[in-house]
Design goal:
Helices cover about 5% and strands about 35% of the residues. The chain has helices at about 10-30, 260-265, 470; strands spanning about 50-55, 65, 70, 110-115, 125-130, 145-150, 160-165, 170-175, 185-195, 210, 235-240, 240, 245-250, 255, 275, 285, 295, 300-315, 320-335, 345-350, 355-360, 370, 380, 385-390, 395-405, 410-415, 425-430, 440-445, 455-460, 485-490, 495-505, 505-510, 520, 545-550, 565-570. A hairpin with a 5-residue loop joins strand 24 (about 385-390) and strand 25 (about 395-405). Pfam families: DUF4397.
């Protein structure tokens, strides 16, 4: 294989661009000329029209040569502890940007190829390189170089997945559908299964199934995916916040990947997230497999890409970890949906004892009948003012409110009684953005029991677990709106949540021993999902939750209506 010499001018290009821009800013701050005398220079990083061809980098390829021209920096990278760390981790040193990769100077996980790189006949010769450094035979053996010739003469969107695919070879090409769902408030999702027999056990590449967070299958079309069916059809689902999982036929969960080091340190036998306090201690398994929580937008098109990925495992007594490969998945966005300015979503939470309730919306649609102590699925609403009517099992209206539905907002409509038993409703917006967290553990609290005027929620024996406005002296039907969530993570030890009768100036107050205590394991939807962990369970599951105190207090209250805490999970 012939290796190309790097054009040093391209490596210094970014330096002079940045220096020139800095000089312009300095001169502009001192000069007094009119603005219309300034020459408008073109953007040096504008690569023009993008082709419909995309590279999905499923391996640690950092450098690219196109038609004999180097596009990346070929600068050296290093790790704080190891010469080889999980791809995208925070230990990579920043290299100088280039014309085609201005931020870091190296190939990332996805690359939409500029049209101008293709020759007139539609041909493009690409070489991808694994190991950093100059591309010569001495430093980089041929095994670290991947050659790919693309012949593309139409506007058909195509993805080239490059990486270790023993069956398909060094790349796998598949058409990409960028067309939005036929239902405008839905998104489309599919699976591209490039799992293979890697270092550990074949259980992790058996027929695979796309599931929701609790392990229930999404659709028959994304169930039992094996080597004979690498690419599934797209499935249409209502937009919203989901935690998808990929589960093997025997119950093994494949981990997700996002490039964050803390999510790549994994037990090779179970693929559980692990941690340790000091490097001389053995790793602690958390019996939880990483899977990201994403907001899937109306009109969006997504692919769940399953592929062999690099992970790390601790060695006792060493700061350095060692690497291993195992099948994993990540979410690839196939189009760029327009901003959601048309839809919001709402669900009913029934805290009215002894009732079967439903919501009807003035803009159209309704929830399903919802039993006491449960929450309905989300319904999609059009943006704008709409009437929200609460009805009983006979269709009679019990209460109504007019609410302004904001775009891309998720609402919970709580139905609960006042002191006389009259139905009340309150609408609360849920923040499902996660503030950048990809596997958040977020909880908020609300008091819907009219017989307890002030309630304080604590952890264990009265231990505070959040800011006072979040958990202390919560009044019936009044939700905390100022930073209302508490956060956690997979490393937490098992805990309890208790309710206290409190009052202004008396926090936490007196333990309400008539209200059953919540256990952290109550935040696990289905224990069966963790059968492969030998009876061990995680402390809790990630997600967006509300803990609501519902029911009544008194000698004549039926047992099934007595005050208790319930858990509402807002993502699926």
């Amino acid at each position: 294989m012939r290796y190309q010499t790097i054009d040093i001018r391209r490596q210094t290009f970014s330096f002079f661009v940045y220096f020139g821009l800095l000089a312009l800013v300095f001169v502009g701050s001192c000069a007094k000329e009119k603005l219309d005398n300034i020459i408008d220079h073109p953007n040096p990083f504008d690569n023009g029209e993008l082709s419909p061809v995309r590279i999905i980098n499923a391996a640690e390829y950092f450098n690219v040569i196109a038609n004999g021209d180097s596009l990346t920096s070929f600068a050296g990278f290093f790790s704080a502890t190891s010469p080889s760390v999980p791809f995208g981790g925070p230990w990579y040193s920043a290299s100088m940007g280039t014309e085609y990769f201005p931020f870091h100077g190296y190939l990332g996980r996805e690359w939409r190829i500029p049209q101008r790189l293709f020759r007139d006949n539609g041909r493009l010769d690409l070489f991808f390189q694994h190991i950093m450094g100059y591309p010569n035979v001495e430093n980089n053996p041929a095994g670290n170089i991947l050659g790919l010739t693309i012949q593309h003469t139409d506007n058909r969107p195509v993805d080239y997945y490059i990486g270790p695919h023993p069956v398909e070879g060094v790349y796998f090409a598949v058409d990409r559908d960028e067309t939005p769902s036929s239902q405008p408030d839905h998104f489309k999702i599919r699976v591209v299964n490039l799992a293979s027999d890697v270092e550990t056990t074949p259980n992790f590449y058996e027929p695979l199934t796309l599931t929701y967070a609790d392990g229930t299958p999404v659709d028959p079309r994304t169930t039992g995916i094996d080597a004979s069916r690498r690419v599934t059809d797209y499935v249409e689902l209502p937009y919203g916040t989901y935690q998808f999982r990929v589960v093997s036929q025997t119950g093994f969960q494949l981990p997700g990947t996002d490039g964050r080091t803390e999510h790549m340190i994994t037990d090779p036998a179970t693929l559980s997230l692990v941690s340790r306090d000091v490097y001389t201690a053995p790793a602690k398994l958390h019996h939880l497999v990483y899977a990201p929580i994403h907001s899937y937008q109306p009109g969006g098109v997504y692919t769940i890409h399953v592929y062999p990925s690099k992970f790390m495992w601790y060695r006792i007594g060493f700061f350095e970890a060692f690497n291993f490969f195992e099948n994993a998945f990540r979410v690839v966005q196939d189009n760029v949906p327009t901003a959601n300015l048309k839809y919001g979503r709402a669900q009913l939470v029934n805290a009215l004892p002894g009732s079967q309730l439903k919501l009807r919306f003035g803009s159209g649609g309704s929830t399903e009948d919802t039993p006491y102590g449960q929450a309905s699925a989300y319904s999609t609403l059009s943006v704008g003012e709409t009437q929200i009517a609460l009805t009983d099992g006979s269709g009679d209206m019990l209460a109504a409110i007019t609410h302004l539905v904001q775009p891309n907002q998720h609402y919970s409509v709580y139905a609960y009684p006042d002191e006389t038993g009259k139905p009340q409703i309150v609408v609360i917006a849920n923040d499902l953005s996660g503030n950048g967290e990809l596997m958040p553990f977020r909880k908020r609290f609300i008091n819907l029991c009219p017989d307890i005027p002030y309630v304080t929620f604590t952890r264990n024996d009265g231990e505070s677990m959040g800011q006072p406005q979040v958990v202390a002296n919560l009044r019936p039907g009044i939700a905390s709106l100022e930073d209302p969530y508490i956060s956690g993570d997979e490393r937490q030890e098992p805990y309890e949540i208790l309710a206290y009768r409190s009052a202004p100036g008396k926090v936490p107050g007196v333990w309400a021993d008539d209200i059953p205590v919540l256990q952290s394991h109550d935040f696990i939807a289905r224990n069966e999902l963790y059968a492969r962990f030998g009876g061990n369970l995680p402390t809790h599951e990630p997600g967006y939750y509300t803990v609501a105190l519902i029911g009544r207090v008194g000698d004549n209250v039926p047992p099934e209506h007595k005050a208790r805490m319930v858990i509402i999970k807002h993502n699926r």
